[in-house]
Amino acid sequence: MTESLFRIASAGRVDRTKKLTFTFNGRTYSGYAGDTLASALLANGVSIVGRSFKYHRPRGIMSAGPEETNAIVQLLGDFDEPNVVATMLPLFEGLEARSVNARPTVEFDLGAIKNLFHRFIPAGFYYKTFMWPADRWDWYGSAIRRVAGWGTAPATPAGGRYEHRYHHCDVLIVGAGPAGLAAALAAGRTGARVLLVDNQVEPGGSLLGTNLVIDGTAALQWIAGITAELDAMPDVVRLSEASATGYYDQNFLTVVENRPDKHWVRERLWKIRAKQVVLATGAIERPIAFADNDRPGVMLAAAASNYCVRYGVMPGHTAVIFTNNNGSYQHAIDLVRSGVAVATIIDLRAQADPELSAAAHAEGIEILHSSHISKVYGSRKLRAVEVVAKTGVAAARRIRCDLLAVSGGWNPTIHLFSQSGGKPIYDTDIASFVPGATVQNQLSVGACKGSFQLSRCIGDGLVAGARSAAACGFDSDDIAAPACTAEASLDIIPAWEVPLPKPSGLAFLDFNNDVTTKDIRLAVREGYRSVELVKRYTTAGMGIDQGKSGNVNIIGLLAEITDTKPGTVGTTTYRPAYSPISFGAMAGADNGHSIIPWRRTPITDWFVDNGGRLDETGALFRRPLYIAHAGESASDAINREALAVRNGVGIYDGTPLGKISVKGPDAVTFLNRVYTNAWDKLPVGRCKFGYMLHDDGRLLDDGVTFRLTDDHYLMSTGSGVAAVVLKHLEKLLHCDWPDLDVYLTPVSDQWAVICVCGPLARDVVRAAGIDINVDPESFRFLDTRYCKVAGIDARVSRVTYTGELSFEVVVATRHGRNCWQALLAAGEAFDITPVGSDTSMLLRTEKAFIAAGLEGDGHANIYDVGMGWVVSKNKGDFIGKRSTERDLSVGGPRPEVVGLLPDDTEFVPPKGSPIINTNTDDDAQKMIGMVTIGFHSPNLQRSIALAQIRDGRSRIGETISVFTKQQIKTAKICEPVFFDPDGERMRN
Amino acid sequence: MAGYDATVKILPHSGFLDLRGNAVVRQICSDVLGLSLPAAANQLKTATDGRIVYCISNDHWILQIVDGRQNDVLRTLEQAAVGLSHSFVDVSDMYIQIRLSGPESQEVLSQAVSIDIHPRVFPPGATARAGFAETTAQLHCVDDAPTFIVTVYSSYRQYAIDLLNTAIGAA
Questions:
Q1: Domain annotation covers residue A624
Q2: Is residue A146 assigned to a domain?
Q3: Residue A593 to residue B163, Cβ atoms within 8 A
Q4: Nearest beta carbon to residue A745 from set B1, B89, B166
Q5: Which of A15, A515, A706, B17 is 20 to 30 A from residue A397's alpha carbon, by CA?
Q6: A368 burial class (0-12, 13-18, 19+ CB within 10 angstroms)?
Q7: For chain A, what is the domain count?
C-alpha cells in the first residue's frame, strides 16, 4: 500500500519538507514531521495495529487522542518502552515500534483462536474456572500473566534522562484548547505566574482538527496569536506533550512532560503546587455499542475528521457516519471537503438540526434518521455496514464503505476534577457526567464542563483565567470574547447500545479490556449491581485507557438494565494516573549515588581505600563491618580484629554515635528526669552511662553523657536513634517541661569519634602525643579531658564499647581523618588493628553490653535485660518509672536476657532463632524465647549467644533447644557476661 | 550528555555558632555582634565583614563567621550573656556549604527542593530551611545570577554534591 492513496495533498499541519522514515512491525514506512505514529500508519494504509487483550481480535486505530485503546505499541531501540499510545506519539526519524498482544504477527495471531470460544470465556470466567485445584493457583496465575499484558519491560536501562522538578505558580491551567488558551491569556495578562500544560505537541486542542472561524479568521491564526503573546510573557510557562496525571490535596498536581525543552531529558515529572487551578481538559467522544463495533475501519467521528484536517490523512475513502447527535454532521462535512466520499449519515434520532441537515445534503450526503447499524462486514478491514430502521419495518440495507465514523456523544474529561475530590453529576442535556461543586481552589471550563460551543468555551476560559488570577491578587481589564462560528447544540439522545442482530454477536463497551454489553448483563445477573462491583467483576474501565471513552456507556447500560438513571448509578472512582506513566518518570534522576542519602564520616574514604566492607550501620551511615586483608574471609577478618582488641590494640570509628548538647541551669534536672539513674553528683570532667526509657517503661536508648561544664553536658546516643532521641527530648522540653531552662543542640556531625581500645591502647595514645597524664591513677575510667592528641585539639574520655581499656578521642570533624591516621601511625609499633562494626558487635556480645534494639525488643524492661543496676532508687520521678515499677509489682514471667553456650561449640545460633524448652513432658513444647545475637568468639574459642528467655535467669544451668531452618541444636543457659565478668580490663 | 548551565563548588570552611535564647539574649547578641538577629524564621542578616546570621526559629539562630574567629566571638557572647538563659555552641564542623550558580541554577535546585524559589518569592537575600531531596538544607539566594548557597550537614557532603551534579546532568 502506498502512502499517496491516503495522504491528502496540501492539507493538514504536517511539514511535508521533512520526511521521516519509521518501522512498524518490521516494515519500513514514511511520514512527515507533525505526524503522530497513528496518523503516519493511517497514511500508509495500515489497518490492523494491534490485537485485543482477551479475544485477540484485530483492531485498528479508533481515536486521535489519549483515549486510544487499540493502537498501543511497544517502542523499540534506544527508546524501548511498552504501553505507548500511538495517537499521542509524535513521529521521529528512525522510530521503531511493534504491535503488542500478537504472536507471531499482528496479521496472523494464534491467540485469535480464543475469539471462537468467546461464549465460554465471558467476564469473570477465571474467578470460577481457576478455583480448583486450589493449590494450582500459582500455576494459573503464571500462565495468565504470560498471555496478558501490553508489551514487555525493557531489559536494559532506558536511554535518555528522566528528572523531577518542583514548581509553584499562581494559576495552573490544564489543557491548551480554546478554553485553556483563553484562561491562560486572561491570567497571564494580569502578571500572575501561570503554568499552561497540554498533552498535545502544539496548543489548540480540538481546534486543530476543525475548520472553525474566530474573529473572522481561521481558528489556527487565533491560536498562533495567543500562543505568541503567552510565550512573550516572562511569568508564563507553557508545556507541550505534558499530561497532567494526578490531582491531589492542596492543589498539588503531577504532570509528566515528554521530550521537554532540554534535548537530553526524555521525560520530566513536574510536582506542581498551584494557588488556583483551571481545568480545561476538554471532552472525549464515545462510541456506540453495536455488533462488531471494534472492526478495523470503525473510528470515532471526530477522530476521522481530525486526521483529515490536522494531519492531511484520510482514514478511509468511503465513509458512513453513525451518530446520535448534531456534532457529527460537521465532521461529515469536513470529511467530504477533505476528499472522503461520505455516503450516508445514519442518525438514531428522528430529526437533526435543520441547518446542519441542509448543509449535509448540500454536500451530497444521504441522511437516514431513526436508523442504526445492525451489522459490520469485514473482519480485518471494513468492507460495508448494514443499516436497519429502529422500528424494524424497513428492510436492512447494506452500504459499502471502508470507514465507519461513530459518535455516541461526548464525555467531559472530568478525571482530574474527580481526583481533586469533586463529585461528578449527570447532565441530561449532554447525556454524560459534568463536574459538580468544586472542593479545592479550582474551576472547570469549556468542554470538560459540558460546554461544547466554541464561543462559550472561550468566554468561560477568559472569565476563569481572570477570576483565578484575581484570587491570587492580580487584576486586569476584562478581555472581550471573540466572535466564533455559530454551532448547533448537541441535541443528543442517549444511545449506549443498539440491538444485536443475533445473540452471539459481540458489542464492545470497553475495547481495552474486551468488555462487551453481554458481560455487563452477566454481571448484573450474578448480583453485581453497583458500578464499582461491575467494574471489578468485568474489568471494565480498568485498562490503560482507564475507561476514557467507554465508562459512560457502561454506566448508561447498567442504568438501563437495572431500570434506574445514570446519575443514580454514578461513576466509579477516578484515580491517578490519567494516562500511563513510565517507571523512569517516577524514578527521576536518582542514580546509584543519590537514591539513598548515605552519610559519611571523615574516615569513610580511608575504609574504602583499605578493604573496608561498608554497609549501613544506623542513621544512614555507611561503616565497615570489618576491614579485610587481601584474600581474607569475613569471619577470618572479624576473628583477627576481635583477637587484636582483646590482646593488643584496635582502633574504631565511632563517629556515627549521636551527640546532643544539653545546656542550661536545669540540665541536671532534665537528665534526672529522662534517665533512670541520678546525675546530681556527676562532677565536671566525668561521664556516666545512662538508660533512657519510653513512657511505657520499654527501652529507648542507652549511652554515655559527659559533664563538660557546670551547666553543659554532652549526651551520646545510639547511631540509629539519634534523631528519635532528639525528637523525644525536644517534645518533653516544649510540651511537658517548658519550665526547665535547658537548650538542646544536635552536634552529631560536629565531632569525629575515634576509639582506641585494647590492653595497649594507652601506649598508642601516648605514642601519638597527648598532653595530659593518662596514667590509670590520673586519668581514671569514665574521666573526660580536653587536651591535644597528635597536636590536634581533642577531648579524650575513658569510656569503652568493647570491655577493654579504651580511649575515646573526639576531634572536630575536619580533623578526623588526620587524627585517625596519626593514631594509626603511632599504633604501628603496637600492631594496631582497625576494627569494623561487626567485630564491635562480637566484642559487646562477649561482654553482654545490651543493645536496646536487639535485647530490648519492645517488650523487655530494664530489669529484664539485666540493667537494673542503672535504676536509681533514691531519686524522684523519671520517664518510664511508673511503668517499670508496675511490671515489678504485677510479677509473672518476664523475658530475661541470659547467655547461651551451644553444646556444639561450632554452632552459632542465628539471630531471631526460636528457643524451645525440650525438658518439659508436655508434647506441645513451647517457645520460651529467642536468640538476640550469636557469634563464634575467637577469644573464647567457641560459639556464644545472647538470648531473651522467659524467666531466663531462673533457668540458668538448664539445657534448651535452638531451632533453625536446618537443624535443632541444644545449648546451656548461662550468665550473659562471657568475658571479664568483673570488668577489670576496662577499668584497668 | 549536555547539562544545565550551572556549576557546583564546595566553599571553604566557615565557622558556625548555634545560638539559642530569648528576646533579651537576641538583643544582647545583636549588640555584641553589631548585627541585628532577625526575629522570625527564614530571615537572615549580613554584616560587612561577611558574617551572616540565619534565623531558624524565634529562639534559634545560626551565625556564620568567615574569618575563623568563631572561638573569640563565642567567648565574647558567653561573657555578655552571663546569667541569662541561653545556649551558644560551636557547630563549625556541623555544616558544609555548596555554591550553586549559573543561569539555570534555579532549574537545578528545583529538582531537589520543594519550596518556591522563583525570584519573586526567593530573591537575592532570601533564605529558608527546607527539605533538600532526602535531607535538609539551609538555602540562601545570594545574587540574581542566580547563585544559591546550600548549607548541609557535613556527613551529607558527598550526597549533596552527587545530587546536584546529577541534577545538572554533568554526572
A1: yes
A2: no
A3: yes
A4: B89
A5: A515
A6: buried
A7: 7
Domain of A401, in residue numbers: 287-408+489-501
Contact B6, B103 (CB under 8 A): yes
Taking an 8 Å cut-off on Cβ atoms, the answer to whether A262 and B20 are in contact is: no
A661:B87 CB<8 A: yes
Residues 648-687 of A with CB under 8 A from B: 661, 663-665
Mutate to test the interface with A, among B94, B138, B153 (most CBs of A within 10 A): B94
Nearest to B167 among A263, A589, A749 (CB): A589
Question: What is the reported pLDDT for A922?
Answer: 64
Same-domain status, A424 and A553: no
**Same structural domain for residues A383 and A436?**
no
In this prediction the ipTM stands at 0.96
Average pLDDT along chain B, 171 residues, taken 10 residues at a time? 90 97 96 95 94 96 96 97 95 98 97 97 97 96 97 96 90 49
Residues A337 and A377 in one domain: yes
What does the block give as the cell for B138? 539551609
Residue (of A50, A95, A97, A89) closest to A69 by Cα position = A50
Helix (H, G, I), strand (E, B) or coil at A565: coil
Q: Which pTM was predicted?
A: 0.92
Taking the C-alpha atoms of residue A768 and residue A823, their distance in angstroms, rounded to an integer, is 6
| Residues forming beta bridges with residue A162, ordered by sequence position | A267
One domain, residues A807 and A925: no
- Summary mean pLDDT of chain A: 93
Of A238, A303, A280, A288, give the one whose Cα is nearest residue A454: A280
Residue A482 counted as domain residue: no
Beta strands in A7-61 (DSSP E): 15-24, 27-33, 50-51, 58-59
- Domains in chain B (CATH in brackets) are 7-11+94-168 (3.30.1360.120), 15-90 (3.30.70.1400)
What's the CA gap between B46 and A45, in Å, rounded? 70
A275 and A202 both lie in a single domain: yes
Q: Answer whether A299's CB lies under 8 Å from A315's CB.
A: yes
- Distance from the Cα of A864 to chain B's closest Cα (Å) equals 36
Distances (CA, A) of A367 to A353, A729, B109: 12, 81, 61
Q: What is the pLDDT of residue A1?
A: 45
Chain A residue with the nearest C-alpha to that of B14: A814
Please tell me the distance from the alpha carbon of residue A703 to that of residue A689, in angstroms, as a whole number: 6
Q: Is residue A275 part of a domain?
A: yes
